[in-house]
Amino acid sequence: MTQPSSRQQASAIPSVSTPGEARKLAEDLMDSMSALLGVIERETELVRAGKIREAMVFEPKKAELSRHYVGVVSRLKSSHPYLAKNSPDLLATLRRHHDTFRAMLQVNLTVLATAHAVSESIVRGVNAEAQRRNIPSTYGASGQRVNPGARHLRPLAVSRSL
């Protein structure tokens, strides 16, 4: 069974054909971006405060809003020729709002990446300390400390569930 090409999928997405449909699509996109930003901003606040478990509660809602956003953007892409020809001002406004939306998403991604890096650093530090305690302290014939082989290292198990 062959998969439909992206061009066939795009043609299956209904495009707007009237000014009213164009306005409705624009409103839907703006509402979708606003709702998604609201959830993301709350998640960002919680992650910054170190409340990861509480931030994880927003994941299902964020996934639902993201799917809706992708659907609206797909419809916008299929409607681009009509909008460019008949509503260039509306299209320019949507681009400006979308640029702001992307900037806000970048802030969220930066916070999440920072939280990930910090937690990874903590886990690596704990592992290094545990390994240091497990490694026997031995010296060679020259009186220099000898680094033990890999057989003396024990792996660190981490549960990813909170």
Number of E-state strands: 2
Helix-strand makeup class: mainly alpha
Name the helicity range.
over 70%
N→C terminal distance? 41 Å
Instruction: Give the number of domains.
Output: 1
Q: Beta-sheet strand percentage? A: under 5%
Which whole number gives the mean pLDDT? 84
Description:
The structure is a single chain. This protein is mostly helical and 162 residues long. The protein has one domain (15-132). The protein has helices spanning 6-12, 19-48, 52-56, 59-86, 88-134; strands at 138-139, 145-146. It has a two-stranded antiparallel sheet with strand order 1-2. A hairpin with a 5-residue loop joins strand 1 and strand 2. Residues 1-18 have a biased composition (Polar residues).
In short:
Residues 1-18 have a biased composition (Polar residues). This is FlgN protein. The chain is mostly helical.
Key structural traits:
single chain; 162 residues; mainly alpha; two-stranded antiparallel sheet; 2 strands; 72% helix; 2% strand; elongated
How are the secondary structure elements laid out?
Blueprint (H helix, E strand, L loop, with lengths): L5 H7 L6 H30 L3 H5 L2 H28 L1 H47 L3 E2 L5 E2 L16
Antiparallel strand pairs: 1-2
